[in-house]
């Protein structure tokens, strides 16, 4: 189900200035030098001007995952989303969700400086300019003012969409047109989990000292998964491999994975759940990969034994042994949906060498902490995995900063990394053309 969202195009803010011809030419040259199957040249991970181009060409033009409805469950609830030079307010209303630039139209102060909260009207803390939930300026009194036209100073708006309980935002005047098609692909996979009827059990923000592309590259492969001992208890470390490239020490795991996959497909067929892989990471503007895959052990959740971490099933699911629904969306998000909880991940670039990674654990709305789940146990596997990934990303950033760095080859199991980089280079070529 898609909620109504206010997104009046005429009131949207202008994006950051386009690159100069000289800057665009430099980016085009680097893109043209990119060798297929290899990582990017160092400036793509280290240069502030390329980061600025990324903010314009990627984060200023494409749909981004911002939050879930579980984070803003009632009208008046909001979250602020910051990335690069932008700050957005994602505000729940009676009709849906509004997305507003968090920039007062008086002198540019942040209207809502907090990460999350509840509000009626939006009141800037500097001079008390007051806006409605739609962003209209409704109060800006000042002694001596007689001809001030408040209608000219509404908060600037961005596009917002809600699909299957997830909120997406886009700053472009004309967002990518294929988002409706992509929503049609992933909504049937996510709908049974009823994210809109879940609640937040925990949220973690980590700042990784690495470029946002390194964060996404790290996420798109499991070649490094030997470095995730907690995750390896439930996630098959053969993820990303195919028959013929499985190393000898993982053959037993591969066979166990095949058996678990056959059993999972039988259960999905019984319950009418989609499970086939849809992989269009670099063949469309809004790149996606989604599938339902088995978990190791008991096959129920991300725990040391694979057993469930919450006693409450999500939505209308009827079985804990449904593995994980895994979704990747370009450019900034990935998701794991299990029968007992959902984990959302979003990467928000801060600058060319820092990225905020926000992880949110969602449980059934009637699940009671301390009774149905323990928050430390629920979050343990991915808290540890996130810290390990932070270390891996920072190792790569340190390497990219070195004069000795040169692009290296992606392995066969890293084909999704190549797909991400191919998607990125296509979009950036369009931007600087």
From TrEMBL:
**Name of a matching Pfam family:** Rieske
- Determine if Iron is one of this entry's keywords: yes
* InterPro entries registered for this protein in UniProt: Rieske_2Fe-2S, Rieske_2Fe-2S_sf, Ring_hydroxy_dOase_asu_C_dom, Rng_hydr_dOase-A
| Domain Rieske as annotated: residue spans | 64-169
The UniProt keywords, alphabetically, are:
2Fe-2S, Iron, Iron-sulfur, Metal-binding, Oxidoreductase
- Cofactor(s), by name: Fe cation
Q: Name one GO molecular function term.
A: monooxygenase activity
CDD domains given in the database record: RHO_alpha_C_GbcA-like, Rieske_RO_Alpha_N
Q: Report the protein name in the record.
A: Rieske 2Fe-2S family protein
User: Highest lineage ranks of the organism?
Assistant: Bacteria, Bacillati, Actinomycetota, Actinomycetes, Micrococcales
């Amino acid at each position: 189900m898609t909620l109504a969202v206010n997104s009046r195009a005429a009131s949207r803010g202008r994006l950051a200035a386009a690159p100069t011809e000289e800057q665009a030419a430099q980016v085009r040259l680097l893109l043209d030098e990119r060798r297929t199957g290899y990582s990017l040249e160092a400036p793509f991970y280290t240069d502030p001007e390329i980061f600025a181009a990324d903010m314009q060409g990627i984060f200023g033009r494409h749909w981004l995952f911002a939050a879930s409805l579980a984070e803003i469950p009632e009208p008046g609830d909001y979250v602020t989303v910051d990335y690069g030079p932008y700050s957005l307010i994602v505000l729940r209303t009676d009709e849906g969700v509004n997305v507003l630039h968090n920039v007062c139209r008086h002198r540019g102060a942040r209207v809502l400086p907090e990460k999350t909260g509840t509000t009626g009207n939006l009141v800037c803390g500097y001079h008390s300019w007051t806006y409605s939930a739609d962003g209209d300026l409704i109060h800006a009194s000042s002694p001596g003012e007689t001809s001030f036209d408040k209608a000219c100073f509404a908060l600037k708006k961005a596009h917002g969409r809600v699909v299957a309980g997830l909120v997406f935002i886009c700053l472009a005047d004309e967002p990518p047109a294929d988002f409706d098609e992509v929503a049609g692909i992933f909504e049937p996979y996510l709908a049974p989990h009823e994210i809109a009827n879940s609640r937040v059990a925990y949220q973690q923000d980590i700042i990784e000292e690495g470029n946002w592309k390194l964060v996404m590259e790290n996420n798109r492969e499991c070649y490094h998964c030997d470095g995730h001992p907690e995750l390896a208890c439930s996630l098959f470390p053969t993820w990303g491999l195919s028959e013929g490239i499985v190393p000898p020490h993982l053959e037993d795991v591969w066979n166990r994975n095949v058996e678990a996959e056959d059993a999972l497909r039988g259960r999905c067929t019984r319950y009418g759940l989609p499970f086939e892989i849809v992989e269009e990471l670099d063949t469309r503007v809004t790149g996606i990969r989604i599938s339902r895959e088995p978990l190791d052990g008991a096959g129920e959740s991300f725990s040391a034994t694979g057993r469930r971490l919450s006693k409450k099933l999500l939505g209308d699911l009827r079985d804990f042994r449904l593995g994980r629904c895994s979704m990747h969306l370009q450019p900034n998000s990935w998701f794991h949906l299990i029968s007992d909880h959902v984990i959302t991940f979003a990467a928000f670039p801060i600058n060319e060498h820092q990225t905020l990674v926000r992880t949110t654990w969602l449980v059934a709305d009637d699940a009671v902490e301390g009774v149905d789940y323990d928050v430390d146990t629920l979050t343990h596997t991915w808290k540890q995995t996130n810290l390990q990934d932070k270390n891996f990303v920072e190792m790569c950033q340190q390497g990219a900063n070195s004069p000795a760095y040169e692009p290296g080859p992606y392995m066969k199991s890293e084909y999704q990394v190549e797909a991400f980089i191919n998607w990125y280079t296509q979009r950036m070529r369009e931007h600087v053309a």
